[in-house]
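Note on ligand handling. Small-molecule inputs were canonicalized before submission; formal charges were left as drawn, and no protonation-state enumeration was performed. Where a ligand contained multiple stereocentres, the stereochemistry in the source SMILES was retained. For zinc ion, this procedure yielded the string shown in the input block below.
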Amino acid sequence: MNEKERRFVQHHVQGFYQKKVPVPPAVSQREFGFGWQSKIDYRHRGFISSWEYEQFVRQEAPLYMSYSLAYYQFPEKQPMGEKGFQGADLVFDLDSPKQEHDHEPVLCRTCLEDIHQQALQLKKMLEEDFGFQQPKLVFSGQKGFHVHVQSPDVMDLSKDARRQLAEYVAAEGLDASTLFRKTAYDLEHHVKPVETLQGPSSQSTGWTAKIYQRVRRAIQEKDVSALKRYGFSRKTVSAIQDDPAPALSQINSGHWGALLGKDKQPNTESLIADVQVVQTDKAVTYDLSRLIRVPGSIHGSTGFITKPLEDPETFRIRDVLAFDSRQQTTVIARQDLKFEFLDEIWTLPRARFSEVPLPLGIYLACQEKAFIP
Ligand SMILES: [Zn+2]
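Structure output:
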């Protein structure tokens, strides 16, 4: 941003914090980092009370505010080892969409929706596979989501345990060969034992359970192309099209041999790829000295709020706006722009004055897509 745009944004950010300063829990035990020119101009800042913190934010109106996932006895001390680490929240950072596509030039709704779905998937995994209570979805303020777990259960998790959690959610190190095993039934009246392939079943847990559920759904929905991809025999696929019930009963008990055909192997790569794998920035999860954007604060690259979602299932840009969209402002687009914002299509010709809602004007200024006259 140029100086003029920065002053304009700064002015509105200050106005926002005059009304309310969001204070993170355990403020006196957190290390803070603040930025005006960059995301973090300086860090190792601490506050003795929420009052002191609120005063600071109101006065300085930082464009970027970050705080430590860790709780410290002396948040301001340096080096890190002197801070007196007392535990940390567990946080995951999602910011890269799974799909490749033509991005919207100004604000890519497809990417945001994709990441939101991934964040929901991660939340479910944390609840179902680890029993964490109510992970919170927080919009990162730009193009991603953070998932926060604040609970005594996670406070003492080691760096290694956090790394393993981050790898688990990405299905990293999942050994496909351990999902299936050959079992020999040595029945009395058989000369040779009968070999059959056992795999994910209704009794499975963790990733194996996810694969079971995915395949079960494919059978129920008679999803022919998925079943073929997983390695089901042609005979089984056509039987499923007539009546899925027998195949469902086989898969419930994990009798994959009966579904794949003699000596056939399942396509484990395809199975793993189809159960959603969540991509996160792992370092955010295991690096205990990391700072992350303060929930409720403004993100200086967008003017949006880094917002905890009240209803995790619903994400809309209009819910994360920091500024009144009924208020208008004038901008000068730096190039011809055409995009969607707040369910409207905007066409802004280059180098002309355009009237836009204030949050859009601030967003365009932050993104260096427009000047402020
Ligand atoms: Zn996109």
